[in-house]
């Protein structure tokens, strides 16, 4: 399918360029869509730097852990976010945590401080939110009924977000309305992402929906921020951390900066968490022995009672299961970067301005780093096996300066969600689910969960 244009060190995939001509790109897309094309290309290139020939647009696909270390760590300053996707997203998420430069750094420091301190400060809120969401579900479903996995996981995630982000300052209904509006605004940017050269003055599909949705977002967030700013008492929640923090010039963050950072958090954190939890049910349904082990651990740790913050740390096997879900269903299947200056990666010249697409999804399937990569095996995440692996062979949360700030928050809430659900329900997924590549890795069709309360 593909041809090799240059071989610097024969037999060593990290030192050659692999090219995929346009007709093969189109053939691959027709046969299996974007994800099918990626999987086919990944199998052929086996970690070699790959150039996809798409006419005028010729991105490099980067999957080898050594190359990822080069781009994300060793020469990270040369690879920035300035791709069309990030530029379009900037209209929604601003130039704080979702940007680059000094304002991004100031925002990042605040979010890291809030989330690392928060892991214990708002952990009670997280555990209570999980308990409440699962109890609601128990009340709503009749034995054997099926529910939409993604809808239910989104509901749980948003219950957790409210105390963590807002100190439960807004009613849950408003938090859900905010999340829905952020999702609509984000989806409406698709045309602007695809056609970044079209000026804003020229209307594109999605523009009106974007304006309406951002009006809703601001209508909910800005009054909330103003009230919190003038309140006498502020809590340990993330919005308070932002309000008490300073920007790159040492000034308090403005209302718009705080609002855009919160929107960025919804975009980065909510859907990815809900989707990963959805994939966890798909994976467990296909592996009865692993599911039984998760249930045994849930019963032993929770003891039939509600989840508590300290349980998250003790759910060791469940966390390994989640780590393996993040490997096989890497939400951020493609992470774009732009090269600022010309560079050489593994002997291959990458020109200034080139687009690079890093693909954790493909890296996680490289047989040179993962034995039987398609097998679901949480045993890959024992401390010993993690230590024995290339540090960049596993990067569902990215790496380098922009590495995810919500990783430990995700594992904490997700472990509690899985354990609480397992201790309350017998869970089946009646129809197998396959992934498709949208901005995140989504199921091709609705994933049903058949739930039977355990009594
Ligand atoms: C399964 C869940 C999640 C996955 C797979 C995930 C994945 C990622 C990845 C791959 C990146 C790096 C993007 C890049 O390099 O351009 C990232 C960044 C980020 N994530 Fe997550 N994430 C998850 C959950 C969360 C949560 C729960 C939050 C917030 C509470 C969050 C907030 C962020 C933020 C703010 C960034 C940007 C950091 C920066 O640019 O400095 N993520 N995430």
What can you tell me about this protein's structure?
By secondary structure, the chain is an alpha+beta fold. It has a single domain (59-453), classed as Orthogonal Bundle (Cytochrome p450). 53% of the residues lie in helices and 12% in strands. It contains 17 helices and 14 strands. It has helices spanning 22-45, 65-74, 84-93, 101-121, 123-140, 149-166, 172-187, 190-194, 207-230, 238-244, 255-285, 288-302, 311-314, 316-328, 360-363, 383-387, 407-424; strands at 3-7, 16-20, 49-52, 60-62, 79-80, 145-148, 335-339, 343-345, 348-350, 355-358, 425-428, 435-437, 441-443, 448-453. A seven-stranded mixed β-sheet has the order 1-2-3-4-10-7-5. A three-stranded antiparallel β-sheet has the order 6-14-11. Strand 2 (16-20), helix 1 and strand 3 form a beta-alpha-beta unit. The protein binds protoporphyrin IX containing FE. Residues 97, 108, 111, 264-265, 268-269, 272-273, 276, 326, 331-332, 335, 396-398, 402, 404-406, 409-410 line the site of protoporphyrin IX containing FE (HEM).
